[in-house]
Amino acid sequence: MVIKKNKVMKISIFVLMLLLLFSFLKYYKVSNDYHEYAENSELEIKLLESQLDEILYKYDSLSLISNQYEKSESVVFNSKEQVLDKNFVKQEARSLEEFEKRDISNSESVRTKFKKSSLSGLIASNVDAKGVKIYSDVYSKSNAKIQQLRVCYTLMSNQLVSTGSKKIYIQVVNPENQIISKGDLSLSSLDGSLFKYSAFSEVDYNNQDLDVCAYVDLEDFKTIKGLYKINIYNDFLKIGTTTFEYR
């Protein structure tokens, strides 16, 4: 009986030792697998970190290149704008220069005309023209044309002008740019050109404002509806002008 118990104990101890050995081997294998897995994982993590660092470095490089490109593009754009601005300024300067030249030319023209006017000294202001109808048995009030123009004006006071008789010529131009000159009134200028006028009057000027009126006989075939231009001359120099509309 004792012998049998000893055998059972031995067998139990042997089985237990086998289980412990098996467990130890299993634990050893699992432990090795774990350490190997940990080492591999650590290597993979380091590799991934290295790859991530490389990617970040490349991204930073690309960002730097992009910023440099944008700056260079901005510089080019600003340079283009500056070039355009310079061209615009040059164009504006040329336009202003041409305008100033024209303005100076016009000013010189005005000065020349003013000097010529100052030589004669006479200026006709407040020039006014009205149509005059002369009624008769031939023409009724409803269909009669104007036969005359009554032209009034004021010779302005000018102490620089000598007193005495002044020859005043009135020239009437109809809407078709024809000079009305009943009796073909004309005279020759110093350069030989023919000056055609519509009426003539001689006034006594005494350096004071002088109101003058004169009547201009119209030519029937040249008397038409429209806008007439009336010019006043003294010795071939225009001293006043106005318009008259015949309706």
Can you offer a commentary on this structure?
This protein is an alpha+beta fold. It folds into two domains: 1-120; 121-246, Immunoglobulin-like (Sandwich), CATH 2.60.40. It has one helix and ten strands, in the order αββββββββββ. The chain has one helix spanning 2-120, and strands at 124-132, 148-155, 164-173, 179-180, 186-188, 194-196, 199-205, 210-217, 226-234, 237-246. Strands 3, 4, 7, 9 and 10 form a five-stranded antiparallel sheet that branches. Strands 1-2-8 form a three-stranded antiparallel sheet, with no helix packed on it. It has a two-stranded antiparallel ribbon with strand order 5-6. It is rod-shaped, with a radius of gyration of 58 Å. The chain starts with a helix and ends with a strand.
Report a brief summary of the structure:
By secondary structure, the chain is of the alpha+beta class.
Can you lay out the helices and strands and say which pair or pack?
Elements: H1 2-120, E1 124-132, E2 148-155, E3 164-173, E4 179-180, E5 186-188, E6 194-196, E7 199-205, E8 210-217, E9 226-234, E10 237-246
Antiparallel strand pairs: 1-2, 2-8, 3-4, 3-7, 3-9, 5-6, 9-10
What composes the largest sheet?
5 strands, antiparallel
Ranges where pLDDT stays below 50 over 5 or more residues in a row are none
* Total helical elements: 1
Total beta strand runs: 10
The radius of gyration is: 58 Å
CATH superfamily of the largest domain: Immunoglobulins
Order of helices and strands: HEEEEEEEEEE
> Share of helix among residues?
40-55%
Please state the second-level CATH architecture of the largest domain: Sandwich
Q: How many structural domains does the protein architecture include?
A: 2
Determine the mean pLDDT: 76
Q: Tell me, briefly, the overall form.
A: rod-shaped
